[in-house]
Structures are given as structure tokens and as C-alpha cells.
């Protein structure tokens, strides 16, 4: 929980590395979204504003 109805969801690979992480506000994508490969390399990074790509 990040405050003001904001929260972050993170999913992990079985090896413990992060798989993806997205920030939400009021149930919509809002903030940064990241995708990682199994070796920890960032594959994709995006910014969102009220559910839309910023």
C-alpha cells in the first residue's frame, strides 16, 4: 500500500527474481510498470496515468 488508494503488485519467478511490477490507483494502472527476464534484466518499462499509457 502506497497511500491515497495507491498500491503496487509484484509477481516473482520461481527462482525469486521479480517477473513484473505495476503501480495502481483506484484500481487502474497508475505509475510505473516493469517487466523483467528470469536473469533480472529489465525487458520493458512503462508509465501509466489513470489506466492509460502516459
What does this structure look like?
This protein has one domain. It is 0% helix and 63% strand. It is built from no helices and five strands. The protein has strands spanning 6-12, 18-25, 28-36, 42-49, 52-53. The protein has a five-stranded antiparallel β-sheet, with no helix packed on it. It starts with 5 loop residues before the first strand and ends with a strand. This is Toxin-antitoxin system YwqK family antitoxin.
Average pLDDT rating: 95
Element order: H for helix, E for strand: EEEEE
Distance between the termini: 22 Å
Work out the radius of gyration: 12 Å
Strand content: over 45%
Note the overall shape.
Answer: flat
**Low-pLDDT sequence parts:** none
What is the total tally of β strands? 5
Strand order of the largest sheet: 1-2-3-4-5
Number of domains: 1
Which structural class do the helices and strands define? Answer: mainly beta
How helix-rich are the residues, as a percent range? under 10%
Number of helices: 0
Specify the biggest β-sheet: 5 strands, antiparallel
Amino acid at each position: 500500500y502506497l497511500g491515497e488508494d495507491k498500491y503496487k503488485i509484484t509477481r516473482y519467478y520461481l527462482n525469486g527474481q521479480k517477473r513484473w511490477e505495476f503501480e495502481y490507483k483506484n484500481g487502474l494502472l497508475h505509475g510505473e510498470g516493469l517487466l523483467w527476464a528470469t536473469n533480472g534484466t529489465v525487458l520493458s518499462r512503462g508509465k501509466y496515468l489513470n489506466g492509460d499509457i502516459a
